[in-house]
Amino acid sequence: MIIGLLSDTHLPNVIRELDELGPEPVEFFKGVDMIFHGGDLTTPRVLDWLEQFAPVVCSTGNNDPIPDHRSEEVQVLEIEGWRIGMIHSLEGQFRPTEQLQNFFPDPVDIMIAGHTHLERLEHREGVTLINSGSITFPHHKELRMGTVGLLELKPGWMKADIMLLGETPGSPNPCQPMSIEVEMNGAGPQVISQTP
To answer: Beta-carbon neighbour count of residue 150 at 10 Å?
Structure first.
């Protein structure tokens, strides 16, 4: 299962659709089986656009006042044996993961969030934390191409990547690519590779 991750689109703004950024969003999303949006899309049109590529699951962001059946404040799914929890804001994200688990109705192996516009990927205390940053306003800078995430899942194995979508002429991408590979063994989830 290949899941495309994005967050904090904040559209419409200077642009109305993600393909106005360039061909990169279309190329990225046409290769995934499912899409998770971490919230702050501001209009369901973003989800409509994404659904041309794959089924979409969304967490309601603090800038998402319009209800949509694809969006809930907290999403919990089990895919390929991995329990995934997604919420727009993991407030106090540097707290122990035991405390962060309280955001979800049951313990999860993977926590996905947005809100900060800063990419983040780490594994600690048996949990992988992923924030794909913002696809349109990375690091809270003006409109430009930012980051997306790719989550590959198999039973007992997962790989997560934060990827630079590309460069916008005159507005460099301020983000950093990241990658982590985790394997489930008798002791629980263990990191087998990570960059940087």
So the answer is: 18
Do 151 and 143 meet the contact criterion of CB atoms below 8 Å apart? Answer: no
Partners of 149 in the beta sheet?
5, 162
Class of domain 2-195: alpha beta
Q: In this structure, what is the dihedral angle of CA atoms 27, 28, 29, 33, given to the nearest 10 degrees? A: 120
Q: Residue 111 is which amino acid? A: M
Question: 146, 134 in Cβ contact below 8 A?
Answer: yes
Quote the DSSP letter at residue 61: P
Q: How far apart are CA 170 and CA 162, in angstroms?
A: 22
Q: What are the residue boundaries of the structural domains of the chain, listed by start?
A: 2-195
In this prediction, residues 39-62 reach a mean pLDDT of 96
101-126 pLDDT per residue, tens: 999 999 999 999 999 999 999 999 99
Residue type, 156: G
Instruction: Quickly list DSSP for 121-185.
Output: EEEETTEEEEEE--SSSGGGPSS---EEEEEEEETTEEEEEEEE---BTTB------EEEEEEEE
pLDDT band at 135 (very low <50, low <70, confident <90, very high): very high
Share of the chain above pLDDT 70, in %: 100
What amino acid is encoded at 191 in this protein?
Answer: V
